[in-house]
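Q: Hi! Curious about what LysR family transcriptional regulator looks like structurally. Here's the sequence.
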Amino acid sequence: MPDFTLRQLELFAALPDHTTLSSAAASLRLSESALSQAITALEKLVGEQLCVRRKARGLQLTPAGVFFAQRARRLLQEADGLIHDLAGRTGELKGPVRLGCFGSFASNVLPAILQGLPKAYPGISIDVTIGTHDDLLPALDAGLLDFAIVYDMLLPGGYSQRTIYATELEAVLPPGHPLAAQETVDLAQLADEPLIMYDTSPSTANTYQVFAERGLRPKVLTNMPQLVLVQAMVGRGLGYALLMSRPNSPAVSLEGLPVAVRPISPPASRTSVVGIWPEEMRLSPRAQAVLGFAVEVLHGEARRSQAAAAAALE
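A: Let's find out. The predicted structure is below.
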């Protein structure tokens, strides 16, 4: 068995965040020669070249190096979890939890979590990363996140998950649109209307999929990479949007202009928001506590939002 140390793993795990050896050394507060020697010693232990170091081309990990860095990060995370798990046996959970959250609903779910968590678990600190599935899944695989809150939609295999709240696709319309007078909207009624597409993964693919399942194709007016831009354009009457239902979501745009939110009938893309983490990784007690708190808080928030939306249609 290779006789490497946690310090060697820590040094190598930092390399994917840097393009040059000098940058990595400065971040790690080492001399460049000391870091280079540590890498060489590690390569001798594992019997493979882990990175290419060229002054003209900077620092580049080999495929074996990428794999080693990912596994090193996971081992370090497990080691950190072991220390804090032992501390947790005294009755108080302490330490960091690295939480990823899908960008389109981050502003609807994170405030409720971050507001109540310090009272429930004062020893836990949260480090938040916002992104799309394309950002969050690689970060999970690399061991950079404990878990991520995402849509259970077009997810690849290899992830454990826990349901947080149910969600489904809704039509967001200008208040003066004829379809806004209806209690529900059929996708067939929307197919020829101008769609402001929320252009992000997996939302774009899901939108095309729900139309295709009905033998329809949307008429896309424009693609917008940010949810606030989508809602702003709908508020100004430029088109409609299809968005997943979210808790704590007022029916107004960022500019304060009203929008009309209507359920899709027959329902389209009913799914869930879930907490996910790689199957081969075990959630630390801290991460389990944060995920459980998110389920408790957001499930209630989602039910209250659904009740308020139903009351508004009566």
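A: A fun detail: The chain has three domains: 6-71, 92-163+272-313, 169-269.
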